[in-house]
Amino acid sequence: MAIDYYTIRVNNQVQAQSRDRLRQTEADCRLGQTDTGAPVDIHSPTCVDALARVIRDANGDITSVHFAPINIAREQTSGIDVTANYRIQTALGDLRLTGNYNWTRRHTRQQYPGDPIEDMLAVTFSDATLPRTKGNLGADWSRGTWGASIFGTYLGRVANYDNDAWIHATWRFNASARYAVNDHLRLTLMIDNLFNQMPPRDRTWGNYPYYDTSWFDSIGRSLFLQLTWKLGGKALD
After folding, report:
1. What pLDDT is stored for residue 51 in this prediction?
2. For site-directed labelling of 179, which of 62, 69, 190, 219 has its Cα 20 to 30 A away?
3. The whole model's pTM is what?
4. 138 near 152, Cβ under 8 Å?
């Protein structure tokens, strides 16, 4: 078992700007508030930059948006990461158990010097809220030429589209079974999304595909048959 505490600070991080996000920010700056009513300071560094990048004509219509990779002023995160591995040898075969859990204590961002520091774990964070917890569990069994495994991925709660409530935590599992024909030839059946888990429902998401693609996808249960043949050299692991 390993337990690690980490703290990471990044300055002048390069990040690609979003054209749609710039247009939304520019509109919020001109209106003095977001669509949820939160106040926006038009003189803030973020607003000054957005107003300079979104070009309007005399009628107030947008004619162009100038966006490019920029250097973010500062980003910081800290938390605890726990990893465990356990092996059991029995007459029925070898069983290996693995697990990992990450708890993020803090994750903040300041886009431009002078801007307020944003909490990227808060439900009200303007971009895609980061999950505070993530993890996985795995089990692998092997006996002679046969083997099987199952692996589950856990994602903690994230904010809904309106940034006013949480979407519940989710699990997704993959599984596989394998047979070693010989030392250099193996046949494997793999199943992704074993339980056909779909993205959690978010009734506030009004645009296609109606869920946050930053964290979820709608690919259902998928089966793959893989043949591995190693020519020469050492035996397959």
Report:
1. 95
2. 219
3. 0.81
4. yes
Parts of the chain with a pLDDT under 50: none
Q: Are the CB atoms for 47 and 55 separated by under 8 Å?
A: no
d(CA 103, CA 17): 28
pLDDT at 18: 83
Place of tokens 């904010």: 159
What pLDDT is stored for residue 208 in this prediction? 87
Q: What is the pLDDT of residues 134-144, one digit of tens each?
A: 999 999 999 99
